[in-house]
């Protein structure tokens, strides 16, 4: 059995002085105020996470050189415009609430060109990662519509020649019998 010491038992302690109670109350209020301020900072007073302007990014690409456009998106501005008009004419590729069709296509091409993550693309275009993902998916679905698929996507036949750059590349020799796995054909 354990002996209870009267000095350690809360029932036998002398009452705290008014100054001591006041200090504890002030400390508690300060802790609550700090917690409320931290909560407000995180959940109430939000700042914009993505401040870039995606349409502005695309506009600056169009206003710049053709070589810079090709470097960023993988094709020339004239080809981009033609592809966009084909998507709009044959795949019903229109605007969404916040993004114009040309920005949707630019998001897709930028992501594919640079193998960019959704986060990097979100920062570049100034949208959330969810918006980037849905935009990418929307563009893929437009390309997979029968009108677009039959016009632009060609699967190689078994007797299609393998491009020289693939045949000469020593890193893909192990995949020489696997058509389409490495070179996209």
Number of strands: 0
The proportion of residues in beta strands is under 5%
Largest sheet: none
Q: Give the fraction of residues assigned to helices.
A: 55-70%
Q: Could you name the ranges where pLDDT drops below 50 across 5 or more consecutive residues?
A: none
Shape: elongated
Cα distance, first to last residue? 83 Å
Overall pLDDT: 83
| Gyration radius from CA atoms, angstroms | 31 Å
The assigned structural class equals mainly alpha
Order of helices and strands: HHHHHHHHH
SS field, number of helical segments:
9
Number of domains: 2
Biased composition (Low complexity): 10-19
Domain DUF8040: 53-144
InterPro entries: DUF8040 (IPR058353)
Protein name: DUF8040 domain-containing protein
Detailed description of the structure:
The protein is mostly helical and 185 residues long. The protein has two domains: 17-44; 54-156. Helices cover 58% and strands 0% of the residues. It has helices at 18-44, 54-63, 66-73, 77-90, 101-114, 118-125, 129-143, 146-152, 164-167. The chain is elongated, with a radius of gyration of 31 Å. It starts with 17 loop residues before the first helix and ends in an 18-residue tail after the last helix. The model has no long low-confidence stretch (mean pLDDT 83). This is DUF8040 domain-containing protein.
